[in-house]
């Protein structure tokens, strides 16, 4: 007797269990949608990130104090060649978190709302029928849905296989990598006393120095018993292995090495982050993209969690509307982009323009000696946009 296999079907499949994905899934589930979250890694998992989360996100998502390592409200800028600290007091604190704990909390929030979560499942490509996305092919079989929300990071499989990369990059004579920065970092364990004395519990340290990052910056952020140390370099400015820049930062830099002395360096990790401009369109028939998957990151600071959470929330609302109306067309889902652009997209475009007008693309004529100072100046200006 032949066994009939009924394919799995959901209202919404969310790909990626980072902040954008978990919040999108939570919102979909709260709206009563049958929601599945697919994550390729095993949760909880390490995520390379400075770990700064805005107060708005903490309060909106009711993140418990147990997840928060520190609250910081002072930015300290150190610019080559003299590295004289310049402090900037910010009006609203930012929480410091370890992303494995923070992301796990968000994923569990989605589950509590009614979403189903499966980790260790790799999405290989989206499934299309007559040009409409209606599911995903995974390492464990095909799964169908009325809507797929891609929240799978800078190298998004959903965006690439759904045809967005052709629209964003190929058709404009660009490549994916031209729109990326590469980050490397390590969590360095230190005694609390040393963190307080050298860094401070309420401070975020930013280093603008071509020896650390030819185009970008380095950071030292305090946690409870460690500091997160890392750097970001625009890919077009990379001339040598970024790990060499990080090693210099930790062990040889005239200021940072003294702050980090005697700390225990954990495994060095690397990751791409989109740091040019937000990519549009962010929707199509049966599909929406949120967070890093469509470049929702400040082109100057690299801040992305705030935008990922807001986009996830909005995508969940629009998905609920689409399911209730039985309409999964691009004409309806374009409302997603209209809303997020109104909420924060214009700000991201202004930040990108600020970067272009002052430093521009990698073939810029800006002198190497001037880039550090200019980067610090536009960094501060971007905070006021």
Report on the structure:
The protein is an alpha/beta fold and 385 residues long. It folds into two domains: 195 residues, FAD/NAD(P)-binding domain (3-Layer(bba) Sandwich), CATH 3.50.50; 165 residues, D-Amino Acid Oxidase, subunit A, domain 2 (D-Amino Acid Oxidase, Chain A, domain 2, 2-Layer Sandwich), CATH 3.30.9.10. 34% of the residues lie in helices and 29% in strands. Strands 3, 4, 5, 10, 11, 12, 13, 14 and 15 form a nine-stranded mixed sheet that branches. Helix 1 runs parallel beside helix 3 and helix 10 crosses helix 11. The mean pLDDT is 95.
What's the SSE blueprint?
Elements: E1 8-15, H1 19-30, E2 35-39, E3 52-54, H2 55-60, E4 68-79, E5 86-97, H3 99-113, E6 116-119, E7 123-129, E8 132-138, E9 141-150, H4 157-161, H5 164-168, E10 180-189, H6 192-198, E11 203-208, E12 216-222, E13 226-234, H7 242-251, H8 256-260, E14 264-265, E15 269-274, E16 283-284, E17 287-289, H9 305-325, H10 330-358, H11 368-383
Parallel strand pairs: 1-2, 1-9, 2-6, 4-11, 9-17
Antiparallel strand pairs: 3-5, 4-5, 7-8, 8-9, 10-13, 10-14, 10-15, 11-12, 12-13, 16-17
Helix pairs in contact: 1-3, 1-9, 9-10, 10-11
Quick structural overview:
By secondary structure, the chain is an alpha/beta fold. It has helices at about 20-30, 55-60, 100-115, 155-160, 165-170, 190-200, 240-250, 255-260, 305-325, 330-360, 370-385, and strands spanning about 10-15, 35-40, 50-55, 70-80, 85-95, 115-120, 125-130, 130-140, 140-150, 180-190, 205-210, 215-220, 225-235, 265, 270-275, 285, 285-290.
